[in-house]
Amino acid sequence: MNQIASLISLSVKDLFEIETQVELTRPDPNFGDLTSNVALKIAKQVSKPPRDVASVLADALSNKSELVSKIEVAGPGFLNLWLTDSALLDNLKEQQVEQINSCKKILVEYSDPNPFKPLHAGHLYTTLVGDTIARLIERSGAEVIRLNYGGDVGLHVGKAMWAILKQIDGENVDDLAKIQPEQRAQWLGERYVEGSSAYEDNQQAKAEIISINKRVYKVHNEDDKTSAFAKIYWECRAWSYDYLRQLYAELEVEEFDRFIPESEVFRVGLDTVLSQLKKGVYQESEGAIVYRGEEKDLHTRVFINSEGLPTYEAKEVGLLLLKWRDYQFDQSIMITANEQVQYMQVVLASVAEFEPMIVERTKHIAHGMVKLSGGVKMSSRKGSVVTAKDIISSASEAAKNSSNDVSQNSVLAAIKYAFTKNKIGGDVVYSPEESVALEGNSGPYLQYAHARAASIIAKRAKTGNDNLVEQKSVHELALGEDQQLDNSERRLVAKLGEYSEVINTAIAELSPHLINSYIYELAQEFNRFYENSRVIGSDKQHFRLALVAVYADTLKDGLSLLGIDAPNEM
């Protein structure tokens, strides 16, 4: 594409003495391989109708280029270009992912569930999308550090601990041993719901929870490991992290480089807010310490409450400073739900007043809510939360009820693909039945598409024709003498040639859904090719087998960026 763009730019300069940057896009295949609006762009400068400008350019390009086999002027003055077979194949061979983040250190923080609570569907979404974004950034040449931040202190812990102590009849550490390992995550989730309800409905319980919350902070401030209360806290905290690690392994996401608990950052945040209070960044208000964001079209938020404890906001300040202290990053990306957008805007605005460079290098990506089709609304305080386990179970159940044989491996592919195929930002309604279907835009369908291509290559291996050397590299992809691309081959080669452009855009925009869209369209293009172009036993078997291999490799690579396995058999 760069060669064609440069060629058109030179023609514009030669014909009209204008220097301009030429942009090329890919139209529907029926209208060429590439299209340009350059004639519309310069028409006013040359005082000619765009179609006249386009016609002059088309004539000039037709006489100059061995890369273009056909040029048409379309609509108000678009240039539609068909590339030669050799140019299409060269474009496929020469594509590469831009190393835009080479030698950069980039932090990606995602998942971020709170201990003492089950990982809910929103956190599952953040986990899977974050995993893909981290893979994309690695592909661009960066050193990626995967971080997972969670609240092991705070009011939610106080609520859970209150209910835990009620359940085990006080600080009876031995009673915890009665909870079986497979029951622990659910048991903790139930205690959190009990504590939350009590906090809202019972004033005495609320006062007790506030007191217990202070005790949890005291455990960390005094590094208490021996008191009965501390032993219960640390044991239940360990259960939470064991559950998370087990779940991440089940999801087959890349391991996190570091879990950062709130207990590791709250003191940094608390001390920083107090020191910046003296400098006027934060203000006192009714016994609390706040940041007044109205002057920046934001709102006021509390950073230290009237009990003298840091809020989520102060802890986020501590997290930002800890990240910078420990990593000196080029960029820090955090992925959370949309509901945290305004909250994070206030946090970042406050930190920008004393550490502007950290904020300049920090990017916040927000996503919508996740719910099962049928409209289950999540509320972990009321116990109606849709958990990650619920999503996995619903997909497994849909797979069992499907008329197709869908493996557990494909269940995982179904969830990952369904969660990454929509643009980040909007709400996600997850349909288990649609996600496991072997027809349509789904993970299992694309796994099947790869297996189908692998079976074609395997069939070639069984022919026993040693005179045909299998081409394993895209750089060996070549037509035989006097052979030309037919229409279905052209369309597949052209689509394969878009891959690096899609990856480059997905990296630049941090948009995994572009990969999903591309590999689905690629699989559809391959189906059309296979229906129209015989592979085994044709006079172009050598070339077409190599084309199938390149397609399979491309599809496999796209799936791998989504964290999805590409099986050879299904």
Give an overview of the whole structure.
By secondary structure, the protein is an alpha/beta fold. Among the domains are: 2-83, Arginyl tRNA synthetase N-terminal domain (Gyrase A, domain 2); 372-435, no CATH class; 443-561, Isoleucyl-tRNA Synthetase, Domain 1. Helices cover 53% and strands 11% of the residues. The protein has 21 helices and 14 strands. It has a 5-stranded parallel β-sheet with strand order 7-6-5-11-12, sandwiched between helices. The protein has a 4-stranded antiparallel β-sheet with strand order 1-2-4-3. Helix 5 (121-139) links the parallel strand 5 and strand 6. The model is unreliable at 376-383 (pLDDT under 50).
Task: List the keywords.
Isoleucyl-tRNA Synthetase, Domain 1, 570 residues, globular, 53% helix, alpha/beta, 4-stranded antiparallel sheet, Gyrase A, domain 2, 14 strands
- Report helical residue fraction: 40-55%
CATH third-tier fold name of the domain at 443-561: Isoleucyl-tRNA Synthetase, Domain 1
Q: What would the principal axes of the Cα set say about the shape?
A: globular
Report the C-alpha radius of gyration, rounded: 29 Å
Q: Report the sheet-strand fraction.
A: 5-15%
The CATH homologous superfamily name of the domain at 443-561 equals Isoleucyl-tRNA Synthetase, Domain 1
Largest beta sheet: strand ordering: 7-6-5-11-12
- Overall pLDDT, averaged? 93
N- to C-terminal distance: 37 Å
Number of strands: 14
Instruction: Please work out how many helical segments DSSP would assign.
Output: 21
CATH architecture of the domain at 443-561: Orthogonal Bundle
Classification by helices and strands: alpha/beta
CATH class of the domain at 443-561, please?
Answer: Mainly Alpha
- Give start-end ranges of low-pLDDT stretches: 376-383
Largest sheet: 5 strands, parallel
